[in-house]
Amino acid sequence: VRPEFDLISRIRALARRYSPELVLGIGDDAAVLKRPSGRWSLVTTDALIEDIHFRREYTPARLLGHKALAVNLSDIAAMGGTPREFLLTLALPEDFDQAYFDEFLDGLLATADASATILIGGDLSASRAGMTIVITVLGDCPAHQAVRRDGAMPGDSIYVTGQVGLSALGLSLLQSGVRLSDALSDLQKRALLAHLAPVPRLALGKYLGEHRIADAMIDVSDGLSSDLFHICEESGVGAVIFSDCLPLVIEARNWGADPLVLALQGGEDYELLFTVRKQKLPLITEVQSAFPDIPLTCIGQIIAEPRKMYLERQGHRESLEPRGYEHFRKAPGGASPIL
Ligand code: ADP
Ligand code: MG
Fold first, then answer.
1. Residue nearest to atom 16 of ligand 1 (CA)
2. How many Cβ atoms from other residues are within 10 Å of residue 8's Cβ?
3. What's the CA-to-centroid distance between 124 and ligand 2, angstroms?
4. What is the pTM assigned to this prediction?
5. How far is ligand 2, taken at its centre, from the CA of residue 101, in Å?
6. How far is ligand 2, taken at its centre, from the CA of residue 30, in Å?
7. DSSP 3-state assignment of 70?
8. How far apart are CA 34 and CA 253, in angstroms?
């Protein structure tokens, strides 16, 4: 790659955008922003580490740029907010491929444009072990209207957008050697793209927040069972999932995968998981007609038993454990690396 300051100039040249709230962007010691009154700021950060979160070998550069921002936008969506600006911190191996970098930046800035989010700064460093991307997004929402994880109440219905388990299917296809450039079936392509290029549910999240339809919300990043458990823990409630209602990727069976396991434990779907009070349920019809292309599925109900989750199939309830991706989970028999 080029020297640090060439890279920063290139980023600056391509990224420079104006917004009424930006007083000073890339180029000084800090960015300077104005903030409208009556709104609350949202701040979130997420890292993508090579060989932990992605493999460069099967990740097209453009899609990596997109995904690095998209996973952060998804967190803003899950608060019911609007993303405004972001910071980009990169650590790159010294021999990093220039063309890969340029395409990465292209993909990233295209997604920034599509979400009206502007790059206002960051940092650059050399790396001894692969590429690290850390993005921090700043956003806002109307005062008092951030949709938190702790607002669920017994009797609420639980909803999820889209399909769950598609990204995990995509990952397992990639791991078994399937590539985006191969001749793919429609489903294979959708699965690979769900993993490589997830679409954050920004407009829907904002709608659910601003119309006060969701009382608790989270995005599905770790796996449906883990993410639902976060809502249960924070809200001091439990949940029942109706197995037959889950929007599963049934065709995953054709590849020897269990669609239910992919959905409950898979993660990285970046769909929204939210709860709705009984008296707000009629509003779901309006949400669905405002977003006709995003399936909304009622998958269960919040119960009073704290931290207890159940899976209900054919009238029979079994206990449901939170499972999903965990970075520092002890490998069976192995030592825990950090925690
Ligand atoms: P400092 O020494 O003050 O940290 P830098 O030389 O790291 O300054 O950065 C100079 C300017 O370039 C700053 O405005 C910084 O936010 C911006 N910048 C550095 N790296 C990036 C990056 N990866 N993406 C966007 N802006 C960056
Ligand atoms: Mg710096």
1. 121
2. 17
3. 6
4. 0.94
5. 19
6. 10
7. helix
8. 52
